[in-house]
């Protein structure tokens, strides 16, 4: 059987241990599918694979054990299904997001539409290093954005309305970070301990805590794996448009400056991350971020 070349070079095609077979990874930003798309994937897996699927760490699906000679046909039907070929090489791979404001009661920001916007702009771009992007709607950080090359976390700074606090201590109980204490009969926030999760805001029975400055914290250079690293904070921005613009700038910065063959986390200092951070802070300056 004649193998269809070309498509093999795409990141969504993974050669299996038995090289007579390939695994196909899909592009599913934020891991969101309709029931019809899910049925479509099942039908494609039955027709072209071994009838099974694999759920990956990055909110996508793999079709194992397909015949490499049928890759073009499989890519075509996957495209028609709205679940095209994915990426897994040195490129921008599947963009992850938690459910965010759409469903999660802890969320501070919207996440899934943001993931789709970012996917639309940068997915599959060939890069010197693999670039993983993960978005979390709050500092509980489901999806571990801090362990991705680009991490985005929705945060809110709490603000107590002066003079009205009864000192009941409910917010103190709710804060897992011990950032609130009752002093002289009123609650006092220790900003240095506050993670800006926003949980206390919803805890006050008298609605005295307000959300101030909802924003997105953007981190760069995290990674999982053998030697995990926490990404470094690049900047805080207030709007979704700014997040998209910052992500585009980070991708461009990595593309132009990073060395291939090494993980991004290992070369941040050589790439002069601090100077890039300074430039970004000037460009997207806000006097409210920290
Ligand atoms: S990160 Fe926060 S908003 Fe997102 S799912 Fe987890 S708890 Fe909910
Ligand atoms: S925002 Fe979160 S960490 Fe900060 S004081 Fe409120 S509950 Fe504590
Ligand atoms: S829950 Fe509200 S009223 Fe009670 S201590 Fe906190 S801010 Fe004050």
Strand sequence of the main sheet, in spatial order? 5-6-7-10-11
SSE series: EEHEEHEHEEHEEHEEHH
Largest sheet: 5 strands, mixed
Q: Spans of 5+ residues with little confidence (pLDDT < 50)?
A: none
Structure description:
The chain is an alpha+beta fold and 290 residues long. The protein has two domains: 7-80, Alpha-Beta Plaits; 96-157 and 211-283, Sulfite Reductase Hemoprotein, domain 1. It is 26% helix and 20% strand. It has seven helices and eleven strands. It has helices at residues 35-48, 71-80, 112-122, 170-174, 199-203, 240-257, 273-283, and strands at residues 13-15, 22-25, 54-55, 61-66, 96-97, 133-136, 150-160, 180-183, 186-189, 209-220, 232-237. A hairpin with a 6-residue loop joins β1 (13-15) and β2 (22-25). α3 runs parallel beside α6. It is globular and about 75 Å long. The model has no long low-confidence stretch (mean pLDDT 93). One iron/sulfur cluster is lined by residues 98-100, 104, 106-107, 136-138, 140-142.
Summarize the structure.
This protein has 290 residues and is α+β, with helices and mostly antiparallel strands.
Q: How is this fold's topology laid out?
A:
Blueprint: E1 13-15, E2 22-25, H1 35-48, E3 54-55, E4 61-66, H2 71-80, E5 96-97, H3 112-122, E6 133-136, E7 150-160, H4 170-174, E8 180-183, E9 186-189, H5 199-203, E10 209-220, E11 232-237, H6 240-257, H7 273-283
Parallel strand pairs: 5-6, 6-7
Antiparallel strand pairs: 1-2, 2-4, 3-4, 7-10, 8-9, 10-11
The structure holds iron/sulfur cluster (3 copies).
The site of one iron/sulfur cluster has 14 residues, from α5.
